Amino acid sequence: MDYFEELMKGLGKIGAKVLFNKEEKSSETINIDQMGSIDIFKIVLKSLYIKGNYNEAENLIFHELEKNNSPEVYEASCDFYNLLLKKSDEELLKNNFSKEEIYQGLEDIKNLNQIKKINYSFL
Asked: What domain of life does the UniProt record list for this protein's source (predicted)?
């Protein structure tokens, strides 16, 4: 298992607890093995966003888009950047991010999506 898969699995467990309001004491467990990779990706992405780890979230996005450039991943990625656009410059800088990086990220995923469409047109 590579670094990003390990990261996704670990953060997915934490994110699932946060997002679904599950506490350690809960007798009900979340079986991450029954979740799809896109579900785990979305949970980890949201967890990184909540923690202010925007650079790590961006790295995760492009790693996921390289291996799974699906509409769901593309949409979650756009949602992430659109949420960041609502942040103040000060808040972004506090988390080592900037508006320029947001616009560049949106442009990069747009270009990846265009490449995907071109590749599918030849099938």
From this structure: Bacteria
Longest dimension (CA), the chain: 52
Report pLDDT digits (tens) over 32-85. Answer: 677 888 999 999 999 999 999 999 999 999 999 988 888 999 999 999 999 999
Q: Are 8 and 68 in contact (CB under 8 A)?
A: no
Within 10 A of 93 (CB to CB), how many other CB atoms are there? 12
What's the Cα-to-Cα distance from 50 to each of 10, 57, 82, rounded to whole Å?
16, 10, 14
pLDDT tens, residue by residue, 96-106: 999 999 999 99
C-alpha to C-alpha distance for 119 and 123, rounded to whole angstroms: 7
